[in-house]
Amino acid sequence: MKLLPANNMRLLGHQIPARVVVNAINASGEKQTNKHRFDEESGVNMSFIRQHNRSHHQTLNEFISIAESKVGLVTNLYFVVDKNVDALALYFGEDPARCPFEQVIERLVKFVRVFRKAHEENCKQDEMEKKKAQKEFEWRFSNGVNRLNWKGRKM
After folding, report:
1. Contacts of 25 (CB under 8 A, 6+ apart)
2. Within its chain, how far is the Cα of 113 from the centroid?
3. Cα separation of 155 and 152, whole Å?
4. Rounded to whole angstroms, what are the CA distances from 155 to 141, 146, 150?
5. Which of 35, 44, 87, 146 sits 20 to 30 Å CA-CA off 118?
6. How far, in Å, are 30, 35, 43, 89 from residue 49 at the CA level?
7. DSSP H or E run through 14
8. Which residues contact 55 (CB under 8 A, 6 or more apart)?
9. Mind listing the pLDDT tens digit for each residue in 85-144?
10. Do 53 and 68 fall within a single domain?
11. Which residues pair with 17 in a beta bridge?
């Protein structure tokens, strides 16, 4: 079994480096932006297009501005997640360069599941101890032991 770096993502059943995907999205966005700028600079042809298709042009401008900001946001989120996954791999004692993203997340999910189960068991244990202490208090109070020491003598 070959281990891939943590910066690879599983897309459509294939291992594709996420940086390649982000770069492709950026390149596509830049290509559309450059084409749009060329159309704006061409002057006469663009004015003719604007006369007949203003709503399409406005929609395209809105889409490009939103898409550019979203691509930047996704890129930033990817790098933050990548750093956090690498840090998590180190926490679990793995080499981030040899531990795939999926393996780190799988271990995190297992850890959280075990942690929650242990927390629930601790809460149940605490509840049982509280009930036991309450019963002991009620027994002592009902038998008058609260005024006597454990051997039955006055304090």
Report:
1. 71, 74
2. 16
3. 9
4. 15, 10, 10
5. 87
6. 22, 14, 10, 54
7. strand 14-17
8. none
9. 999 889 888 898 898 888 888 888 999 999 999 999 999 999 999 999 999 888 887 876
10. yes
11. 8
**15 phi, psi to nearest 5 deg:** -85, 115
CB 85 within 8 A of CB 69: no
Name residue 18's amino acid.
A
Report CA-CA distances (Å) from 40 to 32, 44, 64, 131: 12, 9, 14, 77
Please give the distance of CA 69 from its chain centroid, rounded to a whole number.
Answer: 20
User: Does 135 lie in the same domain as 66?
Assistant: no
Q: Are 31 and 85 in the same domain?
A: yes
Domain that holds residue 139: 102-155
Specify the number of domains making up the chain: 2
Looking at the structure, do residues 87 and 109 belong to the same domain, yes or no?
no
The count of C-alpha atoms lying within 13 angstroms of the C-alpha of 103, restricted to the half-sphere facing its C-beta, is 20
- CA–CA gap between residue 92 and residue 111 (Å, rounded): 10
Q: Residue 14 is encoded by which pair of tokens? A: 């294939």
